[in-house]
Amino acid sequence: MPQPLMPKATAVWLVDNTSLSFDQIAEFCGLHPLEVQGIADEEVAVGIQGHDPIATGQLTREELDRCQADPSAHLKMAVQNLPQPAKRTKGPRYTPVAKRQDKPDGIAWLLRHHPEIKDSQIAKLIGTTKNTIQAVRERTHWNSPNIRPRDPVLLGLCSQSELNLIVEKARKAAERAGREVPPPMEFEEPDASGGFN
Fold first, then answer.
1. pLDDT higher than 90, residue 149
2. Helix (H) and strand (E) counts for the chain?
3. For residues 76 and 26, what is the distance between their CA atoms, to the nearest angstrom?
4. How far is CA 68 from CA 11, 24, 72, in A?
5. DSSP letter (8 states) at residue 53
6. Helix 103-113, helix 130-137: angle, nearest 10
């Protein structure tokens, strides 16, 4: 059952302004009846200002009157016809500024450990461009001497479930096409001067 936006503040308002039972208020607000009793005894939620669910359209006056008349009745949220915000599913992934310098490290790790993944999949997973992926692969990236292959999950660039899904898709696509999954690429580790051997 959906709950009101501010459950404790709503419970404070219902305790102060209605004759509903503690059980009715607790069920509507998703609280324990003892917590509602504590609100009534001013032991819980001290200092919380009541939030009127009728004024915000979460409850109708008729529903409130019906439940006050019948202590065994259950309060029901008012049906809201407001449009819900659409979930964003397409478009580039936002990466915080603090994590952007880690993208080449994540790309290098994917190229080393999962060469079967296509560049377009890497670009979508990490939120980068194909040019950057190509530069990391060919070691022409402006920061090549400092790139260390690191797991993009540990860097916070993607989740483990997203990575597993893309790896599984890439392996299945390779099997369908009859290609062998190429062995992992070998990256040279920089020496003490920052150059490659």
1. yes
2. 9, 0
3. 12
4. 15, 9, 9
5. T
6. 60
